[in-house]
Design brief:
Elements lengths: L1 H7 L1 H13 L3 E4 L1 H11 L2 H4 L8 H16 L3 E7 L3 E7 L6
Antiparallel strand pairs: 1-3, 2-3
Helix pairs in contact: 1-2, 2-5, 3-5
């Protein structure tokens, strides 16, 4: 159910796709950088859709609302604020029995 709700959300779907491209990897950068990478990843029309974040602040706010759903897909998003705002994305490896 969580995966379906993410796929229905343009940002959620883009984050799942972005994370799958990382494999079992890790990404860290500013909200500005993440938004630019997501804009490059999604179809042209999605980046201009009404529900798509238009700026890094909107992206950060929207990601906060998606964190719990993303964790169910083994995608951990951590926002931090030091000298600059940063977002870390870690894809946890699923253990197979």
């Amino acid at each position: 159910a969580q995966e379906d709700s993410l796929e229905q959300n343009s940002l959620g779907a883009a984050m799942v796709d972005f994370a799958r491209r990382l494999g079992d990897g890790y990404w860290k950068g500013t909200p500005t950088k993440l938004l630019a990478e997501l804009n490059d990843l999604v179809p042209h029309g999605t980046a201009y859709a009404r529900d798509w974040p238009r700026n890094p602040i909107a992206l950060s706010l929207r990601l906060n609302g998606l964190k719990a759903s993303l964790v169910t897909q083994d995608i951990v998003v951590v926002s931090s604020r030091g000298k600059h705002r940063e977002i870390s994305i870690h894809v946890r490896r699923r253990d197979h029995d």
